[in-house]
Automatic annotation (TrEMBL):
Residues 114-196, 235-316 form the GST N-terminal domain. Coiled coil: none annotated. Gene3D superfamilies: Glutaredoxin (3.40.30.10). This is GST N-terminal domain-containing protein. GO terms for cellular component: chloroplast. InterPro entries: GLR_AS (IPR011767), Glutathione_S-Trfase_N (IPR004045), Thioredoxin-like_sf (IPR036249).
Length: 317
C-alpha cells in the first residue's frame, strides 16, 4: 500500500523554517504537528518499488566502496562530466523538456512560497522519476535531501509518514502527503498537468534504465558527507536546473551529500520559467546557483562545487 496523507492546517506549516513565510517561524510551528494529520490508504501503483528499494540498499555500500572518494577533494572533471553525460544519455530525453505552456504560468516568480516539498536523495532511481516529472511539468519545488546518514530530513519523513521511504512529497496547497514514485507522478500530472500525461515510457523505463545514472556515477548523491554542517543555512539556496542536465546533476549530488535544502527551479527546454533564469544570470545555461545567505552566484558547476564544500563543511578545506 502506498500512503497518502491529508492534513488541515490551522496556519501555514513548514518543515524547515528558512523556507517558510514569517508566520511559520514561531516555536510551536517548527515541527510537523502530527495531530493534524489524517492518513488514508491508497492502492499501490508502484509494486516493484519495495523490491527495488531493497536492491538499492544492497548496492549502496558496494557503490560507496567502489567510489571510495571524498566528495570535497579535487576531482578529475573530465571524468566527472563524462560519466554524468553517459548517465544523461541512459535516460534518453526524460527530464529534459518542459511540456507546460506559458499561458498556464502567467505569474511566474521566485519569491512566492512553494507548495511542493520533495524529500529524496539524488542517487535514488525512483526519486529521479519524480524529478523528471517535475521538469516536464515545469514545477519548482523545495528539495530536502535525505542521504544515508541524514541528521535532519529523514527523521522528518519518519515522524510525518511513519517510515523512511523515498521519494516522499508534500503538497501544502492540497494538504496531501504521498509515498511511492508512481503515485506521486500520477498525482502531479492529475493536479498540475492540465490534462497532459507523462512522456511515453517515463514511468515504465525507471526499472530498466533508471539505475544507470546511479551506477555510472558510482553512488554520488547517496551518502551524507561526514563533515557536513549539522544545521541548515538560515536563508534559502536556489538552483536553476533540469533533471537530465549532466552539469546540474553534479551540483545536485553535492547538495545532497551536504544535506542542504534548496529551491529547485526547473527550467527544461521550452520552460516558461526560463525568464527567471535570464533575469538572474543573463543566460539560458544551467546550472545556475544562488546562495541568498552570502550573495554568491555562479553558473559554473566546478566553482559551485568548490563553494559548497568550502562554505558548508565543519572543516577548513
Amino acid at each position: 500500500m502506498s500512503l497518502c496523507v491529508h492534513y488541515s492546517p490551522c496556519n501555514s506549516i513548514g518543515v524547515m523554517p528558512q523556507f517558510c513565510t514569517p508566520r511559520t517561524r514561531t516555536s510551536h510551528n517548527r515541527n510537523w504537528d502530527l495531530q493534524r494529520l489524517r492518513i488514508v490508504a491508497k492502492s499501490n501503483s508502484d509494486a516493484t518499488q519495495s523490491t527495488s528499494t531493497s536492491l538499492l540498499s544492497f548496492l549502496c555500500p558496494l557503490l560507496k566502496l567502489f567510489s571510495a572518494r571524498d566528495p570535497s577533494q579535487p576531482r578529475n572533471f573530465t571524468f566527472e562530466l563524462a560519466t554524468s553525460s553517459l548517465a544523461s544519455l541512459s535516460r534518453f530525453a526524460w527530464g529534459t523538456k518542459s511540456i507546460a505552456e506559458s499561458s498556464l504560468n502567467k505569474e511566474i516568480t521566485s519569491d512566492l512560497p512553494f507548495s511542493l516539498q520533495l524529500f529524496e536523495f539524488e542517487a535514488c532511481p525512483f526519486c529521479r522519476r519524480v524529478r523528471e516529472a517535475l521538469t516536464e511539468l515545469d514545477l519548482s519545488v523545495e528539495v530536502y535531501p535525505c542521504p544515508k546518514g541524514s541528521v535532519r530530513h529523514r527523521e522528518v519523513v519518519r515522524r510525518t509518514g511513519g517510515k523512511e521511504q523515498f521519494p516522499f512529497i508534500i503538497d501544502q496547497k492540497s494538504g496531501i502527503f504521498i509515498y511511492e514514485s508512481g503515485d506521486i507522478v500520477k498525482y502531479l500530472f492529475e493536479r498540475y498537468g492540465e490534462g497532459r500525461s507523462p512522456s511515453s515510457g517515463l514511468l515504465e523505463s525507471t526499472i530498466f534504465t533508471g539505475w544507470m545514472p546511479t551506477i555510472l556515477r558510482a553512488g554520488r548523491g547517496m551518502t551524507r558527507w561526514e563533515h557536513s554542517r549539522p544545521d541548515p543555512p538560515p536563508g534559502k539556496l536556489e538552483l536553476f536546473s533540469y533533471e537530465n542536465n549532466p552539469n546540474a546533476r553534479i551540483v545536485r549530488e553535492a547538495l545532497c551529500e551536504l544535506e542542504l535544502p534548496y529551491i529547485l527551479q526547473n527550467v527544461g527546454e521550452g520552460s516558461p520559467r526560463m525568464k527567471l533564469l535570464l533575469d538572474a544570470s543573463g543566460s539560458k545555461e544551467v546550472p545556475y546557483f544562488i546562495d541568498h545567505n552570502t550573495g554568491f552566484q555562479s553558473g559554473d558547476y566546478t566553482t559551485i562545487l568548490s563553494y559548497l564544500f568550502e562554505t558548508y563543511s565543519t572543516v577548513i578545506l
